[in-house]
Predict the 3D structure of the following.
Amino acid sequence: MRKFLAILLVVSIVLAFAKTKVEIWSWRSQDEPVWKEVQKELNAQGKDIEIVFRAFLPTEYDSKVMMALKSGKGPDIIYSRRLPGVRTQSLIDAGLIKPLDGQVDFSNFSEGVLNNIRTGGKTYGVPFAVQVVGVFYNKKIYEKYNLQEPRSWDELVQNAKILKEHGVTPFFVPGKSAWALTMQHAIVGTSILGPCWIRRLMKGETDFLDPDWIYVNKILNDLKVYYQDNFMANTTDDLNTAFAFGQAAMVFYGIWGYGMWKQLNPEMEGNVGFFMSPPDCKCGKPWAYVFMDGALALTSNSKNPQAALDVLRFAATPKFGTIFAKVTYNIPAVKGAQMPNDPLLMEMTDVVSNHASPYVYWVGSVFVSGKPSLYQDVLSPGMQAMYAGKITPEELAKKAQDALSQWYEPLKKRLGK
């Protein structure tokens, strides 16, 4: 009996000091240090929580989440995509993630941000970041060849031409990462087409066979002569390494890469410049593609929902935003966070406030709310095929027209379907 009581006492002590595990899944491997800091903060507040963070390849993430949750397994919290979008909507429709209204204080978020994760009057996650995508460049390389930030597409091409003539790779493009090619199209198209044209497309007042859309396809296809050799074999991991070590002057990418570039090469601190993709002529206005990256969602399979809610409640505070910004050098979605004193981040904050296009067609747009999706099913494989010379810019436009006219009502109405 004494031996049994001794064992029982040891087990009780172990259980008393054991932390409740909260498992989080993400496609963002760079966020792991964030959750280590969050765990420290929660433990300091007296909450015995251990956060287990797992990151998956972005191309595999959504299918792994859906498969795990449908089987009754999976994590307590997932990084979910923004709405409208098939991926998150399918999780909601299947009852795999729960609304958080009344359980999390959303007062530190703007309505504009929250609208990206609301449907049916319910809020299905805590937004974690606002992203800006555009053209990032190596300041030292630009200074060496006396280049200026381009005010028009022709000036951008001229910069690339000068760099190539001096043996410098103008652009590093990850042709193997199809999503990044779609992002590149959206970055360029937002300025070349402009928000008014995109709005007309949304309303069904124009379509993908419009010469302006085909023109965007053409100028991107023409630009590939300024990409690195064998660019179709490279991934975004290759991009991060190449840009961090000065092997290319420019990249079409997002601000989320900045922290990685500095981690790989501390000399990139202060050496990264940014400009919005320039319009077709100097008289035009450049626009930035700005979007809410995603949200932290509570799964219906959570083994420890109360502890998971404690994590989500903290994620809705300015203190979390401060940790997130300090670690990742991304712009947090929550208001009131303290930003690192970094010129590039200050510029990004200004871009978000003053230069974001109100109408877009990649992440977070109406064109990804049905199947086939303009993002995943058309531009991702289509850009790869066009760059590989398998289809023409005109054929890429037709693929978009044929795909979206299957379900997008304004386009169906325009085409009499």
User: Anything to note?
Assistant: The radius of gyration is 23 Å.
